[in-house]
Amino acid sequence: MLVLEDLVDHGNVGAIFRCAAALGVDAVLLSPRCADPLYRRAVKVSMGAVFAIPYARMTDWHNDLGRLRAAGFTLLALTPDQSAVPLEKAPAGDRVALMLGSEGDGLSSHWLREADEPVRITMSPAAMNAGVDSLNVVAAAAIACHTLTHL
User: Fold this and answer.
1) What ranges do the domains of the chain cover?
2) Which of 16, 19, 58, 135 could bridge to 139 as Cys pair (CB 3.0-4.6 Å)?
3) Neighbour-count burial of 85, counting CB atoms closer than 10 A to its CB (0-12 exposed, 13-18 middle, 19+ buried)
4) 135 near 121, Cβ under 8 Å?
5) Which fold has domain 2-149?
6) In this predicted model, what pLDDT tens digit does every residue of 56-86 receive, in sequence order?
7) What pairing do the DSSP bridges indicate for beta strands 85-86 and 117-120?
8) pTM
């Protein structure tokens, strides 16, 4: 499952739904402020995947992550923080919820604290030396979904 916090760009939301469909993600959960996946741009970018992947909008941004955990999900927070666990070493299982944050700020401090494990995509040393410590949220979602569905 993907859990999106405050992604406001309809194109990014649509592209993430397309990634989810292509890589076998079961569902998408949207925070209350996420862009509408049924908005025309999101539908177009998703190539209709928004109609194929089940999704729901959270009603209680502050407490719904606890409800996911109570339902048996392991909450993984994707972050560029180099102290986070490399994604390929993350706890795997049938009930993983990968949390992705907004386009600019990433995940809120509240959601990072709520996570069971912060995880990162390992960047090349050359990229890090050049100051590139993260990827666009869509590229990160694609890599993370592929990695988690193949662990």
Assistant:
1) 2-149
2) 135
3) middle
4) yes
5) Alpha/beta knot (3.40.1280)
6) 999 998 889 999 999 999 999 999 999 999 9
7) parallel
8) 0.94
